[in-house]
Fold each of these.
Amino acid sequence: MNSTQRLRLGKCMTMFGMLMVSITPCRGQDNDSKVADSSKVVFEESFRDPLAENWQWLRPQHARWCLRNGGLEIRVWAGFADSVENALLYQVTGRGQDRWSYEVTVENLSQPKQQWEQAGLTWYSDGRPVFKLVKELVDGKIIVMPGNKPVPDDAVQLKLEVEGPQIRAYYRTEFNGPYLLAGEGQLPQSDNEQVSIQCYHGPTDAEHWIRFTDFRVLRQEK
């Protein structure tokens, strides 16, 4: 699909930077179906125009994002974690000590070609990116980071699970199967937390787009 076709489809917007917390890669898999069954959905984004009020844009570029058929499509632009454009941030409030999950489905609409071309979720503390969970091209292979988990170039579901200071990163390519644990870390103390949908490290000589769908926030009370 060319740029003229995409710009016909709706409005298009952008985002930010990254200070990573320590991450522990995890081996094997973790079936968290019990957690999912006992969790309540507290927010869902349909990606219809307009977006819900819970969102704000970081470094928006209106010609490079659009809402289409229940999804958010963002052109993967060149840049780094501290200069990423068209990042869509969801404000996290009242987290307490409950277990919260933030989920999204990520699909590359063009085969990634650029080293470190990536898309997924990033956690922000006090305006700084501190933890990311992404589908990424590294040395010619599609992987999930953290953990360097190989995945096919298909749609992947990503989930950040946060409980107190602990954050865990999950992914799955079989949407009816269990989530796999990619890595985990510790979050800094913060009164201002956000989770973002974002992509960056795209090529400058080709239009590569990412489609995001099925963003949900779930809560499991203690």
Note: The chain has one domain: 3-220.
Amino acid sequence: MVSNCCKLMVKEEFSKLGLRISSIELGELEVLQKISISKFDKIRSALLKNGHELMEDKKAIQIERVKNAVIDMIHYSTESPEVNYSSYLANKLECDYNNLSALFSEVTGTTLQQFIIINKVERAKELIIYNEMSMKEIAYQLNYSSVQHFSNQFKKTTGLSPIYFKALKKKKRTALEHLLESTRNEEQKPKTRKKSALTA
């Protein structure tokens, strides 16, 4: 569950089964009553039908919690963390960062640090496209030590500098706006009828 729509869908499905949720967060929820095996199977089916899965494996659950914490921290927080990401995750998940990192690598095949970097770069792309913040502000919000560090990591991940990425997106938008404008102009031109010669 990564969005409010997902949370609403889950609440609705649980409500249909007569189950009350006491809390719901990214990737996890707490139910107020015991769940029978038949209801458990119905929950699993309802979630699968809506593109979600019910996790029972402890490692998978922990990895999902880590992913959700990273996504929440990078994509939904409007403030720069006051501590580094490893400390944030260790505190939030109440687990040693080295253990989290080792488990993450074991289960996903990628490092936790790389997962964080990928999410930071994706968020940076969004912020660049929105065009409401300077590169310095984006670097600060995503907890980079400097604009240079941000630019280097962005380029290493995407193959493009943030400035080039911004110019490329702006050029695409301009081209689309030009295309839309010329289409409107064509539609507004008076249409002339061609007379066809009738043959006998």
Note: The chain has nine helices and two strands.
Amino acid sequence: MKKYILILLTAGILFSCNETESDPQPDPIPEVMEMTIDIDHRINDSAIDWINTTYTLGAGTKVNITRLAYILSNFYLIKVNGDSVHLDDQYALIDPKRGLWSVKLTDIPMANYSGYGFSLGLNSDVNHADPNQWDVNHPLSPVNNALHWNWTAGYIFIAVEGRIADNGGSYVFHLAGDRNRVDYNFPLNFEKKEAALNAQMRFDYEEIFENPNLFDMETDGKSAHTEDGPVATALIQNLAKAFTVESVE
């Protein structure tokens, strides 16, 4: 009887050990150190139609939008303890008519954050560096972005172009120059865990011509190709309110 009991105990121990050894251990969740920013470009709360829709701006000017393109840089995140995570050498070309409305950032560590930000435009050293250093598919390649003024050795930070519906004329605002870089900070609490982050933003086109400066193309001008002057100054000031954050998760 004792022999049978011993055999049963031994078998139970072996079975228990084999069961333990064969239990699969869950793989650790891989950390994806990325953040995607999707920007929805709208006017008067509607998606922009780049073909033939006529829109009315705040001053009453009726326009057809043909181009909106800009460069983003100087991305950063702010941790809740106040430390900054600067994402150096990461740039984005935004050109929604070409389907370029998303930014993919890398090297985003897990942490609790209280906000993030970026610049529309470039720092002076990058702005005046040799543009031919970039691969043709890079956001800063003039071949890719068509946003470089060769004759001034600098980039157009944002191009705003279209037609004036009432008279068939055109408007062309190319805003550039070191002084006209626009810096944005978006305070918002969010947590970066193992998964990638996604931010949903919107760009309101009408803000370029309405807030805080109500801009009338008939009296204020239909073009800008310089760093200074009242037209460039008014539109750069208005761009400060063009972006809003809808969510980060």
Note: The chain has a mean pLDDT of 90.
